[in-house]
Each structure stands twice: as structure tokens, then as C-alpha cells.
Amino acid sequence: MDKKDSMLAYTYVERGRFALKEKPVPGLKEPHDALVRVTLGSICTSDLHIKHGSVPRAVPGITVGHEMVGVVEQVGSGVTTVRPGDRVTVNVETFCGECFFCRQGYVNNCEAPDGGWALGCRIDGGQAEYVRVPHADQGLNRIPEGVSDEQALFVGDILATSFWAARISEIKEDDTVLIIGAGPTGICTLQCVRLKRPRRVIVCEKAEERTRFVCTHYPEVLVVGPDDCRDFVLAHTAHGGADVVIEVAGADDTFRLAWECARPNAVVTVVALYDRAQVLPLPDMYGKNLTFKTGGVDGCDCDEILQLIAGGKIDTTPLITHRFPLSEIEEAYRIFENRLDGVIKVAVEGPAGGTGR
Ligand SMILES: [Zn+2]
Ligand SMILES: [Zn+2]
Fold first, then answer.
1. CATH number of the domain to which 201 belongs
2. Predicted TM-score of the model (pTM)
3. CB 66, CB 121: distance < 8 Å
4. Domain span at residue 126?
């Protein structure tokens, strides 16, 4: 195997600073590890949270990045589901598959020491040429024949999150579903919600270009701004609000908007990660009998998502508005972080990318 010794890795140096560094190519540490050559990665808002110090468990010095696809380069003796040469998606969650939580599908709460969101946060991630993936049997999913790297890029993180959000929201065919926020995860959520065939989908979004994106790609979806959202939802529903609300925005007033726009006995699913605590004014909502579902992704449906992509049911490639080689990742961050040039998501190509197309 003609593996290199050193590689480029985008690194969390200290609060406020990431830098592209030369690091040794990682090796396998445990029998259940795999080494993946990253062919395509992306930048997530969570990476920016690390950069700005709002993820306290993020370890300085680690390589960031937790959205990527690649080719398996090496596997440990305990790995059974993938082999060298396989094209794979990498799951944002590291999970053992055996503990109490994993057995019930609650993989976000895996009890293994490296369980949960570890890659690109507590251990080296994938904005690099290579990444070591622990618990590879769980964390890697083979990309079906005919599915490109760009089609599979978001499977392990924002698509897993969106798919899980749609799954737990108990959507029925008669429902009106309100999705708050049309950022990358909001748009992925929209795609996953549509698979449940609800009667109507309303998207609440403030930014003009994101509103335009939704109108262009999903003409049957109704779009409204936050100021008019409550009245709009009331006007388009028969029972005083949406049957299901999925809150993906995480802005200052969107949690309140979510439960205000819900009809009595609705399900309100909160996917958003807030910067500060939110108020649940129980006296105001007394008798509304809402069901709240909250939390981080239990990303254990990646094979199903990949099959849906292969079958043409999910297509997130229009989200990729910009492409950069890994060597220019600084510029990719500048554009993504400052929301320049109509960016939604950037694709970052590994030096040996392209082979996985
Ligand atoms: Zn992410
Ligand atoms: Zn576990």
C-alpha cells in the first residue's frame, strides 16, 4: 500500500483560530478502526461553533471536520462490514452498536468512551487527507453503485439529522408540517419530510436567497417569513396551527414561534442547537398539550438514506454551491462563515479526490 507519511489537516489551534497543518497520516489504534482516505468533505455550522469556542469539549490540536465521504484504505482485524477499496460515507456519530442506548437506536447517547460526536471534535476528523474512524462497522456505510461523492456527502451528518427529525415527528398524510429554517439542515429536513407525503409543507425562512432556493427547487412548498408565520399558518390550517412543527433555525425567537404555530396536541421537534437557554412558558400553553421532542441526531439510518438517494428520492446536490480543494480550505471557510456569494454548502475535495465519482 502506497500510503503517504504526512498529510494536510485543518486543525483547531485555539479559540478563534483554525489552520491548515502538515500532520502524520493516522494509523489504526483499535481492531475496530478503519482508515479512510477522504475524497470529499464539507464544512458544517458546528465547525464554526468549535472555532468560536462554543463547544467546550472540543480539544485544541484536533483535526476538524465531521462531514465526509471517502475510500477505505485499511481496516483493523475486528472490522467486518467494509474492506479496503470500498467507497463509504462517514457517520458524525461514533457508536459501539452494543450498549444499552445503541441497542435501542439511541446512538447519540452511546456509552462507549468515544461514543457520540467525537470525530472532528474530541478526536481527529475529516477535513484532512485521511481520517481514522473508530467502530468502523457502525460508523461507515458503503455508497451504492451509481451514487456519486457529491450525492452522498451529507448522509452522515445533516441528512442523518434531518431523516431522524422527520422520522420522530410522527408525520401523517393529512398533516400540515411547518419547518422553521431553510439553512442546509432545514432544506435536508424538507426533503425527508416530503418522503412522508404530508398534505402541506410550510417553510419559515428570513433570508431572501434561501427563500428563493426553496421556491425554485420545491415549488409546491409554501414559504413565509418569521414575522408573518403565525398568521400564515393559522390561515392555512383548519385546527389552529400546524400538526407538526420542526424547529431547525435555532434563532433567538424561533423556539417560541415553533410552539405558537403548533395546533393543540401537535408534535414539536426541536433539531436546532441554541446558543442560550430557551423559555418554556407552561402557563401560556396550558391545555395545548404539546409533545416536544428534542436533541441530537441518532444517525443510524444511513443505509436507508443511501438507498433513497440511489433511488432518486433524495437529492441534496443542489445544496453544494461552492467547491474547493483541501489546500484552499481557508477560503472555503471564509465564504461559508460569512455567508458570501449565496453559499449554502461547500464541498472540499481531497487531493486524491475524483476517484470516488
Ligand atoms: Zn455537523
Ligand atoms: Zn453504544
1. 3.40.50.720
2. 0.94
3. yes
4. 6-157+298-349
